[in-house]
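Input record (one chain):
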Amino acid sequence: PAHDREPLDMDQADIAALDQLPGIGPALARRIVEDRDANGPFGSVDGLQRVRGIGPALAARLAPLVTFSGVPRQAPTR
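The corresponding structure, as predicted from the sequence alone:
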């Protein structure tokens, strides 16, 4: 069962690992990795929602299954 698994680090996981999560298929897994490569680590479930296709409901479903090792990049201040 999924709840026996270690939480998946969304700031490091590859497409194959992301694809194993409920509600995330190969296309969304690819978008997660592309967003992370472009914009840096998510840092939290809230940060993860910047990826197109991940809304509050999916984020809430993923929350108990995932972890975040990265620190989100701060938006530049002007």
